[in-house]
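Input/output pair, single chain:
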Amino acid sequence: MNAVIYARVSSTNDRQSTDRQVSDLNGYASKNDINVVKTFEEHISGAKRNEERPILCECLDYCIKNKVDILLISELSRLGRNVDEVLANVKRCKDNNLNIYFQKENLSIFQADGTKNPFLNIFISVLGTCAEMERENIKFRLNSGRAKYIADGGKLGRKEGYRKPKEQKEVEYKEVIKELKKGTSVRRAAKLCDVSVSTVQRIKAEFNL
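Output:
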């Protein structure tokens, strides 16, 4: 059985790594005599729409085109944090007979006998709805805390005259710099690295790229 691994983290810098996900999934494949033919790794928010996640799109296209048996993902949230987007990906895989295995949840689209898992869509909907509610709660708490801070006389933003050291930018925007060095356009680099166009333009100018 041939498999592809897809791993994702939200951070575009070195704060997060896909190494653990890839290692765990390779371990699972090895124990189950599954041959991993390719690994896709993406640094982008799971809240993005499917079409805004180029590596995920490339991964699914590769699996379908090459008739890969199973796509290995560490947990459901790696596929996306929006219920509709996740369900759309699952449907596409179902329609093309591509199985997906979510390691944390121990769930897959197709069961051992080849039949569709009757609980998967229900599980996705419930889990996704809970995740969306939690995000809204976090957003509410952040906005509430920010409003109180301002009401108490606090000021948001950087101190006047502050400039981030170039060395810090080099680390923080490593992926942006890498894309620009490859000749990627400003807008494309911004989309791939999940930053604003103006940020990419500033990095391009500062590093003479």
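The CA atoms of residues 119 and 150 lie 47 Å apart. The domain at 2-126 is CATH 3.40.50.1390 (Rossmann fold).
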